[in-house]
Amino acid sequence: MEARSLAEAFASFEETWEPRVLAELNDQQVKVARLDGEFVWHAHEDADELFYVVDGDLTIEYRDDDREDAVHLGPGDLTVAPAGVEHRPVAHEETKVVLFEPAGTKNTGDADDSERTVEELERL
Amino acid sequence: MEARSLAEAFASFEETWEPRVLAELNDQQVKVARLDGEFVWHAHEDADELFYVVDGDLTIEYRDDDREDAVHLGPGDLTVAPAGVEHRPVAHEETKVVLFEPAGTKNTGDADDSERTVEELERL
User: Fold this and answer.
1) For chain B, which domains are there?
2) Where are the beta strands (DSSP E) in B1-124?
3) pLDDT tens column, A38-53
4) How many Å lie between the alpha carbon of A43 and the closest alpha carbon of chain B?
5) CB contact under 8 A, A5 and B81
6) String of b and e for B79-108 (b: at least 16 CB within 10 Å)?
7) Cross-chain residue pair A79–B30, CB shorter than 8 Å
8) Bridge-partner residues for B58, per DSSP?
9) Alpha-carbon distances of A48 from A24, A99, A103, B31, B73, rounded to whole Å
10) Chain B 41-100, CB below 8 Å of chain A: which residues?
């Protein structure tokens, strides 16, 4: 049992698009990440994904056969990207986010051969 | 898909020790609660429980056969109370927390007949 500080977690790395694992519970993981710019379109077939913005300016874009949609998040806002729905995070400035999702969820989901894929996440 | 604001969530109620459900994902729930003073000792047999302090001053006390322990949390700090471990949140001032735990986790866990038990959680 220990306390983990979000501020210390973010101070420990500078890389963008490389989530770190901060805590685990109930087969889920709490991750912290710095985002900047556009990510790749992807979906997680079996995993809902929570985004919580600590600091910054983030849009989660969605698309499916019928329509496009977007959710805008500022500091203190959260949203859930549902399993199976194609989405793309777009950070309009460097943005600090907390992610919550099942352990083992890949950052790029079903996107093929993305340079953005991080296979082994560092644990803080 | 929608954005939820923590500030708006906390502005929507004043009651202490009555968690509200803010979001659900992967059979887990994100709850917000105001805590003040000492809660009851309890454990959740099958559920780890995450506490994230948005604002305030919180100690999670632990006890088992061998020892006592305590984790102190200020704003921006989080901790995980492991399943099956008896614990008691103590808020030294009114404290806003985000809880993350499996859907259906009872706030008072295995504590008998607690007046603090909330059977039906309000959804925000």
Assistant:
1) 21-108 (2.60.120.10)
2) 4-5, 20-25, 28-38, 49-55, 58-63, 68-73, 77-81, 86-102, 122-123
3) 999 999 999 999 999 9
4) 14
5) no
6) bbbebebbbbbbbeeebbbbbbbbeebbbb
7) no
8) B73, B91
9) 16, 11, 12, 16, 28
10) 47-50, 60, 62, 69, 71-73, 76-83, 85, 100
Q: Give the model confidence (pLDDT) of A39-91 as tens digits.
A: 999 999 999 999 999 999 999 999 977 777 999 999 999 999 999 999 999 99
The answer, for B18 touching chain A at a CB cutoff of 8 Å, is no
pTM of the predicted model as reported, rounded to 2 decimal places: 0.94
Q: Is the ipTM of this complex over 0.85?
A: yes
Give residue-wise pLDDT tens across range A29-39: 999 999 999 99
Alpha-carbon span A118 to A107, nearest angstrom: 7
